[in-house]
Design brief:
globular; alpha/beta; 7-stranded parallel β-sheet
Length: 174
């Protein structure tokens, strides 16, 4: 019933959708893409408040169980036009790839975004933060690329990613 990491629709997505629309100054009819949309809960809530929403997901299971229609696509090769979306959301996506895939995903997000983008990155503070590194390795089951904040800044610069980002660290998760 819950599947996919226990993800369920329990009402939490409605205020998140409203915050996203307000924070980015989105207007009714603006286009939003959620990369790795899981079961589509956030997509549906964004749609319900007037946005044109596209969700993509690589998991056939998630697409089958989704509450909102989703496209099947890897984050490294998004099947959308350049600058098609006013906002691209990619939470818990980029760091699930190897380094080359991280760069490709960041470049794809940049390519399809007309205005705004927001990503989350799994990180630890610095090379001395071994406890943070190992906690992230332990907690983040699907995280393939876990870097220091400074290393992520270099990767984003290399990919020419200029959107919003948040670092998920051991301190953040704890």
């Amino acid at each position: 019933e819950n599947g996919y990491g226990g993800m369920k629709d329990d009402g939490r997505w409605k205020p998140i959708a409203r915050h996203i629309k307000d924070h980015y100054g989105l207007k009714d009819g603006d286009k939003v893409l959620q990369v790795r949309a899981h079961k589509g809960y956030l997509c549906r809530e964004l749609f319900d408040i007037g946005l044109k929403v596209t969700g993509c997901e690589s998991s056939a299971y998630a697409i089958e169980k989704a509450s909102y229609p989703l496209d099947q696509s890897p984050a490294t090769r998004l099947p959308y036009e350049d600058g098609e979306f006013d906002l691209v959301i990619a939470a818990n996506v980029v760091y699930t790839h190897n380094l080359e895939g991280c760069i490709q995903t960041l470049q794809e997000i940049r390519r399809v975004s007309r205005k705004h983008s927001r990503i989350t990155l799994c990180a630890y503070e610095n090379e001395e933060d071994q406890e943070g590194f190992w906690l992230m390795r332990y907690w983040v089951l699907l995280g393939t690329t876990i870097l220091t904040k400074a290393d992520w800044m270099e990767v984003m610069a290399h990919a020419k990613y200029r959107g919003d980002y948040r670092f998920d660290t051991a301190k953040f998760m704890n």
